[in-house]
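Training component of the fellowship. As part of building independent skills, the fellow (R.M.) carried out the full modelling exercise for a liganded target. The chosen ligand was DP6. The inputs are recorded below so that the supervisory panel can assess the work.
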Amino acid sequence: LLGDITRKPSRSRGTGRAVANIALCKYWGKRQLELNLPRTSSLSISLDPLGSETTLGLSDLPGDQIRLNGREMPPDDPFSRRLSRFLDLFRPAETAGFVVETHNTIPTAAGLASSASGFAALVLALDDLFQWNSTPRTLSILARLGSGSAARSIVSGFVEWHAGTHDDGLDSFAESLTDTWPGLCIGLIEVDTRPKPVSSRQAMTDTVNTSFLYSSWPQQVDSDLAALKTAIRQRNFDQLGRVAEHNALSMHATMISAWPPILYWSPETIRTLHTIWRLRQEGVPVYVTMDAGPNIKLLFLEDTAPMIREKFPKVRIITPFAPPDPDTL
Ligand code: DP6
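Fellow's submitted model of the complex:
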């Protein structure tokens, strides 16, 4: 794939926009590190309108100039290093530098999937700059090379990333499901927006290598993926929430049972979890999912939104399939 694409710019600048996503059935564990090939398939929902917008062009100066949210990033910053390493795949000449301007509407590296929309927006900007006119499937594969979950940010709505089986990764890409769910809400609760102490990449490797619990993960994913797809097709919210929460907590269980142990939760994460479980006992249909960080994402339906706002004043509510209705949210 990388051998077939042109690296001759067709215009002076390219722009790409991509939405963040949150997995309902997680991608956790790689079968191949370099190409970010996952051990299992995964399924996400996009978080419109949160995401990334990237503009890029080429310069004759050596080295990349990278700006993130209006701030010039030092070349030795981990963010710049990761971006430049990815851009190496697309440089027209070894000496060419890219000028990159990225805006994220989500906190960077706080478990809110900014790397997913970031790499997806970058690939879309490259597609625009070089005028590849690639298919979403190809763009998903290219975005995956930057960060696995970015494969799911090329398209929107409910998205399934097929793990694939080929060594070259050409069958490991994401595509949208046709179903929508207008009343579905995601509530973002930012517990801590500082960069995480252990990257998901490192955490996955340690989990795969040392957790005995991880051996049951692929089996759980098979069952969860099927149950989630049925729940989405039938708009069965309780099933969706139950399976997504169980899946997220099981992923965290595999990390806690790794050595050295990985625990992303803070005391506030745990307090929030208990509040949610208490609410559920009182009959409020709300569920939770979490990624590699302390932040919490709530899953609920539109008519529960007023109650969620009251209990969690800091919550940011996203309605991926419908413009927010100010009267209900
Ligand atoms: C917990 O996509 O950030 O958010 O492929 O190493 O870049 P790399 O990992 P990344 O991992 C995401 C892990 C997760 C679950 C998910 O989004 O499916």
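The panel noted the following from the submitted structure. Helices lie at 78-87, 114-130, 136-146, 200-210, 217-234, 237-256, 267-281, 305-311. The chain has a mean pLDDT of 93.
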